[in-house]
Amino acid sequence: MKTKLTAVCAVAVALFSAGALLLTGQEIRGTITQGERPSIAVPDFRGSGDAQRVMNTFNETLWNELANSGVLSMRAKSMYPVDVPQQPSDFRPPTTSPPLRRGEAPRTVRNGPWLTDWSGPPVSAAYLAFGYTAVQGGRLVLFGWLYNVAQPDPASAQVIGKLYFGSVDNEGAKNVAREFAADILRQFGAQSLAGTKIYFVSDRTGYKEIWSMDYDGSNQQQLTNYKSTSSMPAVSPDGSLFAFTTYAQGNPKIMVYSAQTRKRLPFYNPVSSMVATPEFTADGHILFSAAIDRWAQICIANGDGSQMRRISNVHAIEVSPRVNPKTGRDILFISGRSGGQQLWRMAMEGTDLERLTSGEGDVANPSWNPNGQTIAFAWTRGYEPGNFNIFIMDIAKREPIQLTQNSGRNENPWWAPDGNHLVFSSKRGSTTQIYTMLADGTNVQRLTTQGNNTQPVWAKGIN
Q1: Are 179 and 164 contacting, i.e. CB atoms less than 8 angstroms apart?
Q2: Angstrom distance (rounded) from CA 234 to CA 457
Q3: CATH: 3.60.40.10, 3.40.50.10070, 3.30.300.30, 2.60.40.420. Which one for 2-187?
Q4: Are residues 244 and 224 in contact, defined by beta-carbon separation less than 8 angstroms?
Q5: What does the domain layout of the chain look like in residue ranges?
Q6: Quick one: pLDDT at residue 3?
Q7: Contact 338, 350 (CB under 8 A)
Q8: What is 234-253 written as a DSSP string?
Q9: Three-state SS sequence of 291-343
Q10: Contact 447/434 with Cβ under 8 angstroms?
Q11: Nearest to 210 by CA among 165, 180, 171, 255
């Protein structure tokens, strides 16, 4: 305990001497005016002593977290001035000197970095993230600031000033960079994706199994090992449970697991030739499709499968129920009741049915945005008719927007917890892989490479 306190005190002294009002666990925030894609400059941070060896990881992570958020306009590093501040005391206002000759204007003399170096051309940024790292008491310490460089002086420019602690290795550098990025994004009303998980199906072992990975494609882990076909993963709203359909015991059945312990939990499957497409509700129920009287129908049951009841009752295939995360009351689903596979919506009780798509082509894989208003789905209409592509739609406006085209077969869209990104599967060659993109179809990033990878579900991390 004494070593830990000594380290914290040393850091506080360093900050005080730097002229920054910044204490452990505290934040000093100014006001950010909301606007579209604020511009930000993020010069490379430096590290002192042992911290220097992890700075490449830190700087790459911080830049990627902010750049991939979709809410900020990143100013190119090639435009940055040579003189980069590391702490608030580095800012020195320019002074005016008398003219050298009679009749000349007074001269402006630079005394060090200043706010206008970043707010004016060629950088023309509205905000500046800067700081440095050091090792104190065997821990990596990040001294991080965010400044509104349009302000007249450093005292009024500071939006964030905070300490972040991590281990002195690449993982620790990633963590503190992600925490700092999350605080920056929060100022703009955005949510960091750090800590979120993507569950998916992969056949890289020779069998279709359930896997998970971090939001950026790192830390890919196999979760099931049935040496059979497991598919259609679903995750509870709090991230604590995941379910899937598996053929491991013959006919397709649903299995439920703890995301933390990875132990199987009880779930009673109804007697049916097919039980599939699970979906958790916020109140602990599970929706799914079960073959009843030869037709797949949408059902609901308790979390352990007990007290099952039908929601739909029609001579048509109805699958892929998805509960509105905002209201918890209305359900998206795919139905063949009007002919081809189309996207429908109904109340939890099975009432108030309405078709959301035009009847053209086939629709699959619906997903709700966390705002409960925008949806994503795969459809075979629009450009490249007959080929599945990703669409989004505001359900109030009913105007579908096509996000993918001329890029293979694109399916299984799923909204990220931030409501600003989508994950999806795409066959753009001989294999199907998982990609992410912004909700406008830009900034496409490939996450997987081995085998075929499909049916991604983007979930919150475990609380």
Answers
A1: yes
A2: 7
A3: 3.40.50.10070
A4: yes
A5: 2-187, 197-459
A6: 37
A7: no
A8: EE-TTSSEEEEEE-TTSS-E
A9: EECCEEEEEEECCCCCCCEECCCCCCCEEEEEECCCCCCEEEEEECCCCCCEE
A10: yes
A11: 255
pLDDT tens digits, residue range 201-259?
A: 999 999 999 999 999 999 999 999 999 999 999 999 999 999 999 999 899 999 999 99
Radius of gyration of the chain (CA): 26
Which amino acid is present at 254?
I
The sign of the CA dihedral 296, 298, 299, 303 is positive
> Do you find a cis peptide bond into 122, omega within 30 degrees of 0?
yes
Q: How far apart are alpha carbons 84 and 45 in whole angstroms?
A: 9
Report the largest interatomic distance among the alpha carbons of the chain, rounded to a whole angstrom. 100
Can you tell me the distance from the alpha carbon of 169 to that of 359, in angstroms, rounded to the nearest whole number?
A: 55
The three-state secondary structure class of 3 is helix
> Which pair of tokens denotes residue 171?
């993982």
Spatial separation of the C-alpha atoms in residues 50 and 39, rounded to whole Å: 32
Give whole-number Cα distances, 183 to 178, 187, 332, 394, 431, in Å. Answer: 9, 7, 34, 29, 38
Question: Is residue 303 within 8 Å of residue 318, measured between CB atoms?
Answer: no
- CB-based contact 450:202 (threshold 8 Å): yes
The CATH homologous superfamily to which domain 197-459 belongs is TolB, C-terminal domain (2.120.10.30)
DSSP class of 387: S
Summarize pLDDT for 87-127 with one digit per residue, the tens: 999 999 999 877 777 777 777 788 899 999 999 999 999 99
Q: Helices 55-67 & 170-187, crossing angle to 10 degrees?
A: 30
Chain centre distance of CA 56: 23
Position 66 confidence tier, pLDDT thresholds 50, 70, 90: very high
Q: Is the pLDDT of residue 57 over 50?
A: yes
Q: Measured on CA atoms in the order 446, 447, 449, 454, is the torsion positive or negative?
A: negative
147 touches 127 (CB < 8 A): yes
Element (H, E) at 2: helix 2-17
Residue whose C-alpha is closest to residue 208's, from 245, 256, 234: 245
Convert the pLDDT of each residue in 167-176 to its tens digit: 999 999 999 9
Q: Is the dihedral of CA 131, 133, 134, 139 positive or negative?
A: positive
CA 202 to chain centroid: 21
